[in-house]
Amino acid sequence: xxxxxxxxxxxxxxxxxxxxxxxxxxxxxxxxxxxxxxxxxxxxxxxxxxxxxxxxxxxxxxxxxxxxxxxxxxxxxxxxxxxxxxxxxxxxxxxxxxxxxxxxxxxxxxxxxxxxxxxxxxxxxxxxxxxxxxxxxxxxxxxxxxxxxxxxxxxxxxxxxxxxxxxxxxxxxxxxxxxxxxxxxxxxxxxxxxxxxxxxxxxxxxxxxxxxxxxxxxxxxxxxxxxxxxxxxxxxxxxxxxxxxxxxxxxxxxxxxxxxxxxxxxxxxxxxxxxxxxxxxxxxxxxxxxxxxxxxxxxxxxxxxxxxxxxxxxxxxxxxxxxxxxxxx
Length: 329
Description:
InterPro entries: Glyco_hydro_43 (IPR006710), Glyco_hydro_beta-prop_sf (IPR023296), Glycosyl_Hydrlase_43_Enz (IPR052176). The record marks 137 as: Important for catalytic activity, responsible for pKa modulation of the active site Glu and correct orientation of both the proton donor and substrate. The chain is an all-beta fold. The protein has strands spanning 14-23, 26-34, 52-58, 65-73, 80-82, 88-92, 95-104, 109-116, 124-125, 139-142, 148-152, 163-166, 169-172, 193-196, 209-210, 213-214, 232-239, 242-248, 255-260, 267-274, 285-289, 292-299, 311-319, 325-327. The chain has one domain: Glycosyl hydrolase domain, family 43 (Tachylectin-2, Chain A, 5 Propeller), CATH 2.115.10.20. It contains no helices and 24 strands. Strands 5, 6, 7, 8 and 9 form a five-stranded antiparallel sheet that branches. A five-stranded mixed sheet has the order 16-20-19-18-17, with no helix packed on it. A four-stranded antiparallel sheet has the order 1-2-3-4, with no helix packed on it. The radius of gyration is 18 Å and the shape is globular. The model has no long low-confidence stretch (mean pLDDT 95).
C-alpha cells in the first residue's frame, strides 16, 4: 500500500506506539508523544525523550481524530524521572487505567498506573510504580472472565536483559544495560513478561513470569532467531477463543504473532503481520471496531525518516479459516 493511500492519522504532533481500544462505542488511541530533541541517537533510546501523554478518539475509522490534549505529564508522576514511553489503557470496575513506563529516580524503568473516571481524562497517577514491575511497553488485557493481565518488556534501552531470577526473585544487573541480549547456538531468547493484575487493577496478583514463545515444533525460540524472537512491544487480543500475542522483533523490525490457549501461554509462533516500516522502531496494537479488525502502528514518513519523530497509522487486517492474520488490501 502506498503512503498516499495510508496517511498519518495525526499530523499536528508526533505520535508513536499506539494502543487502541474501544470504550463506550468509540475508538480511543493512547500513544506516546514524540518531541524534537538534540539528544543524539543511541542504542539506549535516550533520544526518545517523551514527557507527556495525549489521548485521541475517533467515532469512525475514516472520520476525524479528536485530540483531548495532555492527559498526564512527567511532573504528575511522583516516582518518575524521565522518558514517558509507550503506554496502554484498560477499563474495569467503571474506571479507566493508563499503564505507563518511565525511569524511576534511580534510572531504572518501572511501570506505573494512572486512574480516571473517563477514557480521555483526567488521569491521576499513583504515588509509586507497581511493586515488582520493570522494563517497558506495558500491554493490558482484560479477559472475558474479568481477569486482567499486564504484559511487558523491551530489550536494550528497555532493560529487560538486566533482569534475571535469583532464588526466585527478579534481580536487576546494571552491568547489562545498553544494547545487550543473549547470543549463542544454545541460548534461548529472552521472553516477554506477564503477571495477573489485582482486581483493582493497581498491582500484581501473581508473581511476574516468562511468557514462553515456541516454534512450530514446540521448542523455545532461540536468542539468535532475530526474525522471530521477542524484542519489545507486547500486545494481546482474543479472536474466536484463541489468544493472540503479537510483538516487535526489534532489530529486524517485524510485527510477529503467536497463538495460545491461555493468556499466560505458552504461545506458538504463527507468522508476521507487518513488514519493516520507515524508521528504526515498530510498535502496534490490534483492535476490533465496527465489526472489522485493525492494526495501529507508526512510521517516520511525516518526519521524512527522523527515527525518533513518528506518526500513528492504521490498516485493516483479516483472518482466514485457520485463524492466520493477513493485511487487507
